[in-house]
Amino acid sequence: MAKLGVVTIGQSPRDDVVPDLAALLPPGARIVEAGALDPLSGAEIAALAPSGDPGDEELASRLRDGTEVALSHRRLLPHLHAALERVRDAGAERALLLCTGSFPELRAPLPTLTAEQLLTGTVQALAAGRTLLVVCPLPSQRAALARRWSTAAARVEVAAASPYGALEDFAAVAAELRGRLSPGEDAIGLLDCVGYDLAHRQVLADALGLPVLVPRLAMGHLLAQVV
């Protein structure tokens, strides 16, 4: 069976994500991991902090010790390309990028699926004509995500809560998001980061009383068809 390269924009292994993906893949599926930040020192990672420049998207990921890190999209790109080269050199025949951000300028050295590609069609199909309630990691991402998903849903509301923080803090944001719904409004929830897990989905689903899309599950089900 083909080997799948799983690449995070943070550090590998992503033992908080990959087991959920692997459980949905066919028996015998082989995974090799790499992270864009794997070979970097603390100082080198700090140098990838968001620039604050207009148009330079701020990204969130996780270090190996569980620490959350904010990254500049532009500064990250060469390190992401290098991580894709490492999984290719380790024998991967295709790769999955564990980030729901958009990377149109990335020239991958092997066939690469992104979480953003896999998620977009699913959201467009399920959110059409409905309100989409989005949770993202960083407050700075809210405006861009509201614009991004505005073509997929009748109305979009975005709130920020880290997937790497306390679940109680996430629950408070979920409750606040519930307050933006009108009684009986047709809506669906979206956790717009691979870092959100099944516990986050349950908290948000309970708060909203609605179905919630979680990227790692959507990716796993789709990947199972091609690996």
Automatic annotation (TrEMBL):
<protein>
    <recommendedName>
        <fullName>AroM family protein</fullName>
    </recommendedName>
</protein>
<dbReference type="Pfam" id="PF07302">
    <property type="entry name" value="AroM"/>
</dbReference>
<dbReference type="InterPro" id="IPR010843">
    <property type="entry name" value="Uncharacterised_AroM"/>
</dbReference>
